[in-house]
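Chains adopt folds. We examine one example:
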Amino acid sequence: MASLLGSLILAGAPLNSVLPTWQSIQVFALYMASITLSWCGLRHFYGRTNNLPVLFALTLFPSLLCSLLPGLGFSAHTMLIIYFLFAAAASTLVVIEIAFARREHLWSQLVVAVAFTGYAASFFLAAAMLQFTPLQVSPQTAYVSMIFDQINSVLVYVGYVAMSGERANLRLRHQADTDALTGLFNRRGIQHALLKLDSKHPGSTTCVLLGDLDHFKKINDTLGHDGGDAVLKIFAKRLKNLMRRDDIAVRWGGEEFLVVLPHTTIDEAGAFAERLRKHIESEPFVISSQAINVTISIGIAEIEQPQETFDKAVGRADQALYQAKHAGRNRISR
């Protein structure tokens, strides 16, 4: 809206070489407000706080400065150059905001980045041409600038709507792929995660761990189902703390958990399983001020690439888990 209002003032102004000062100040403020509000909106979208004094200053300072320049002997030509440089810097801030939002894997944000890159480049180019060439602002150049701004604005609007829709779809997919209690993948989600894993680590050695919390029925009988759920959530948190970035954890069912360790040998997987077992055993779980000792039995299997399927490897890990339980629990088995 700010951009559109600025364009309407520009369209209705009697243009010669430059706008009258009071009108130019209005146009500058509105265009700067358009850019800074976009930056503010993006920060809100990404969950970052906004510094309102900085936003107000960035919006109003260029206009106030340009309003003072004629009284200090500077030409309107210089005033335009300074404004274009401020506008280019503000547009660059929006592009930087998107560049640092790497955790937001949204392809649609690239549309907004391209639009604001176009803004920044055009403002820098305009400032350079005004400074180093005989170019002057004319009705033709102003109208071209206005049309470019409105086309770019449409691109920004489309990008914003697409970002919101893409994020919503990703969240729905994440909810469908995730166990609501522990935040780990569920059986549906592991299939999608394995597809990404294959693209990252083609042909590498992968191991699977299948763990089962020992005597979990007794925990449920003692603490109730709410207490049992609390134990599962604490276990999932401890498990995630031990995992590497590309490791995948799944709530396989009930108190069973599956861990996929890419680019890991069977010996390395055994060392990880032992660290996990000791970590669970050594520190009691505190549930409603009550300390509960929890242990885990773990079966390990290596996916024999490329002839073995993931399901077959999980089946062998399940057999190893059965052996660990049969041998007395609180141990690992291959």
Remarks:
- The chain has ten helices and seven strands.
- The two ends are 65 Å apart (CA to CA).
- The chain has a mean pLDDT of 85.
- The first strand starts at residue 206 and ends at 213.
